[in-house]
């Protein structure tokens, strides 16, 4: 079927609707039963990007002018970023196995190479044709991820029984959005601990964190229509952040809402005290009490991170799906 590739510079309302059509159809086909994005979600995803990144977008139209495929390429900012680019490529189920995805991927690979990127990564569902599609195009598996879900409505007694024992030498702090001034610098330092988390062979270069970047990260969540909740374990001895966990909610929390559990990290000097489980337990209790409309929490963890997978299982998270991050070395 004839198709027409079009690179978007400023997505119009029609572009957003076409993108939404493709994305929703693909998700309904590949991940049945999971929530679909709204038009507002798609618009935000196409127009909002974090510091240190920029987007290149392509929309493929079919013979009748309808959207049939999309590609969102995240490029590192000119000043750095490890020269790792990532792409989310989606083909409408009715237009697969017709060469559309192959041609679009070739366009994206060429664009990433022209931008002097060294690697291009993407993520696909494990055990699906997407894996062979990438493997035959010189992509190699770099990181395997397990997505987990906690159904709050089905396990209320588990939330009540979550560990809430005092941790001598530490106190809990909680806030929404930007951290209090007194914790901003040590919270940024704790976030630097993400560099130790497993990333397989993705070759990710972790950008440095400071109080300003923490503030911009919180502002980005707000621009995306999300509420950013934070819990931290604070050392009583020096008042610094010893560990933290983050979670996002939709800006308008309605019945049946889904929360997204983001990163949890503990400063190396404070590991071995159970702070990760303590923090995530406290976050879930807060979620239950302050946002009863939320019915589920989803998260993803690298398969190499056995400790966090075990923590999540202890909290009641159960496997939802598995994905594989593939990577292509660019010349």
TrEMBL record:
Superkingdom: Bacteria
Gene3D superfamilies, per the entry: 3.40.630.30
Name this protein carries in UniProt: Putative acetyltransferase
Keywords on record: Acyltransferase, Transferase
Keyword set includes Acyltransferase: yes
Lineage of source species: Bacteria, Bacillati, Actinomycetota, Actinomycetes, Kitasatosporales
SUPFAM superfamilies: Acyl-CoA N-acyltransferases (Nat) (SSF55729)
The keyword Transmembrane appears for this protein: no
Pfam family, one: Acetyltransf_1
Example GO molecular function: acyltransferase activity, transferring groups other than amino-acyl groups
Coiled-coil ranges from the UniProt annotation: none
Annotated ranges, domain N-acetyltransferase: 3-190, 192-331
């Amino acid at each position: 079927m004839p198709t027409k590739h079009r690179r978007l510079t400023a997505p119009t309302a029609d572009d957003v609707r076409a993108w939404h059509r493709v994305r929703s159809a693909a998700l309904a086909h590949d991940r049945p039963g999971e929530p679909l994005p709204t038009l507002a979600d798609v618009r935000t995803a196409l127009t909002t990007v974090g510091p240190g990144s920029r987007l290149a977008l392509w929309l493929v139209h079919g013979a009748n002018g309808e959207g049939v495929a999309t590609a969102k390429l995240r490029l590192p900012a000119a000043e750095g970023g490890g020269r790792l680019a990532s792409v989310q490529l989606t083909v409408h189920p009715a237009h697969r196995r017709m060469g559309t995805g192959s041609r679009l991927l070739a366009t994206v690979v060429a664009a990433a190479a022209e931008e002097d990127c060294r690697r291009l990564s993407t993520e696909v569902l494990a055990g699906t044709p997407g894996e062979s599609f990438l493997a035959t195009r010189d992509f190699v598996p770099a990181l395997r991820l397990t997505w987990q879900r906690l159904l709050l409505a089905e396990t209320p007694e588990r939330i009540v029984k979550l560990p809430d024992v005092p941790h001598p030498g530490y106190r809990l702090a909680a806030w929404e959005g930007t951290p209090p001034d007194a914790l901003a610098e040590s919270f940024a330092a704790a976030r630097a601990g993400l560099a130790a988390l497993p990333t397989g062979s993705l070759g990710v270069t972790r950008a440095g964190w400071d109080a300003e970047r923490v503030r911009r990260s919180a502002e980005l969540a707000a621009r995306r229509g999300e509420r950013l909740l934070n819990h931290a374990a604070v050392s009583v001895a020096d008042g610094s952040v010893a560990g933290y966990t983050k979670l996002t909610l939709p800006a308008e929390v309605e019945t049946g809402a889904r929360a997204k559990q983001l990163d949890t990290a503990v400063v190396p000097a404070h590991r071995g005290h159970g702070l990760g489980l303590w923090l995530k337990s406290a976050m879930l209790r807060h979620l239950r009490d302050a946002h009863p409309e939320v019915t589920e929490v989803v998260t993803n963890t690298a398969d190499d991170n056995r400790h966090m997978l075990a923590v999540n299982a202890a909290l009641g998270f159960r496997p939802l799906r598995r994905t594989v991050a593939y990577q292509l070395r660019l010349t």
